[in-house]
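Q: Convert this sequence to structure tokens.
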Amino acid sequence: MKQSIVTPVHTRSSAVMTDFQGWRVPAQYGDPAEEYHAVRNNSGLFDVCHLGRLEVSGPDALQVLQPHFTRNIGILDEGSALFGLLCNDQGGILDAVLLFRLFSESADPRFLVTTSPAAFDRVRKQLSSRAYDRTRITDTTESTAQFALQGPGSDAVLEAASGSSFKRLKRKKLKKCEINGVPVLVSRTGFTGERGFELFLPADKAADIWTSLLSGGKAHGMLPCGMTCREMLRIEAGYCLSGSELDGTRNPAEAGLMAFVDLNAGFLARDAVAAFKTSPPAYRLMGFEVFDKGIPRQGATIFSEVKEVGIVTSGIHSISRRKDIGMGYALERYSQPGQEIEVEIKDREVAARILAMPFYRKK
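A:
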């Protein structure tokens, strides 16, 4: 089981640890509801070192990446990020990723691809299969660390720690700074539905920076946050996760991600994905809330009048809605908002209703 470079700090803080896609990660540091409210109202700090990080560099880096990425990489300036999909030849989604064009001191472009742990090996294999001799694909997952600082108060925490201003940093833009003399790359990105940042830094300095951010963040209501809180925020925001909503077999039309497909980008799966656009998919990703108490679990069956019509991919208790909610794939005719369904929860069929996503929108 892999673990973050910061894991010893988490265990000394009495964090409850859990297994997630081959990694040992913090599930919670205290009450997950308190962590949730910290992110929605102030700020929360997440250790996301478990995310895979692949740096692609060299004269042909763009030509290596573009055949796999569903959006036009050519529009990326240095210091920018682009959300998109990596698809296999059949149009199945290997992963939904952020692609960063890093600052480069040479004429050769440098890119960073961040992946989920579940998809990391297959993404690295696919990129490497068509790499050119002048392209370097480097796994920086262990040599770097990644934190997510999320919430409306995250600017204040980051500015106090770095002495730099981030209020004008636009979404999906990067900025360099220093924290305790350590170079840190900051991006205006995140996975919570709130304003926030992701920090990339040397792994050997990660524990010190984590501790320093938490210490300085106390004055701004910041808390360390674990995977349970992250799932609450992620599902409320309607974000897909590899290993849950995405597994290499679901396509962009089924997952509701066609907005992140540019059919003029020239990726290898273009024709397969274009065919999904012209014909309605058999299944669609949808969200639902449960009428009775009970959190739906991944793999549970979705019914409509005794007929099996789909499968649950994620479920959690929504604090903002005060309901148990979930996401899943259902046959297209049973996936419309307002449709009443039943969901398998602990061997019971519990009444539920399909809702439009996201479940939560930032005020």
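The two ends are 39 Å apart (CA to CA).
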